[in-house]
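Because showing beats explaining, we think one record worth quoting, sequence and backbone structure tokens together, and here it is:
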Amino acid sequence: MEIKKAEFIVSNADVSKCPPSDRHEYAFIGRSNVGKSSLINMLTNRKELAKTAVKPGKTQLINHFLINNEWYMVDLPGYGYARTSKSTRGKFEKIICDYILKRDNLICLFVLIDSRHKPLQIDLEFMEWLGENGVPFVMVFTKADKLTASERQRCIEDYHNMMLDTWETTPMAFMTSSEKRLGREEVLDYIDELNRTVSIE
């Protein structure tokens, strides 16, 4: 898929104020500082479409971007940033839960995971919650340029092995690097396939 146009549409904290749910929509989420904004910028070929920050936890709203005038890419607040206050974390959680459970045109949630770390409980628990609520998602491992090919494979296997304790099958996984543009075609081709094969009710 070629992205010819990517434009910011709106930011808000209320799912009811999101754009009309008449287009395919793909949201990106992960722990704070996992590289969401960098990945979105890499996928869209726009260096500053999504705002990157040195300090984690800066994305606090639902950010909608319209791609090729056809479908939406969404940057969601990160989860699990320890330095945010308990009340702020609660607000993020409500924004995230409301969006994920109420957005009818959400075709797939891309869960970003830092490939440099061993499986973290917070990521596993979040994906478990998605599974319990029937939310379609895939895993997107970030910062893969920091790993060797064998380490990348072991990273995916570690997550799959842990998830198989409670899952019958594990979700699809992509290995990406915003710096090296690794995985760009694979992720966009997957979105293109879903655009063609999944209809919005």
User: Anything to note?
Assistant: The helical segments are 36-44, 86-102, 121-132, 149-163, 184-197. Residues 53-58 have pLDDT under 50 and may be disordered. Residues 9 and 65 are 5 Å apart (CA to CA).
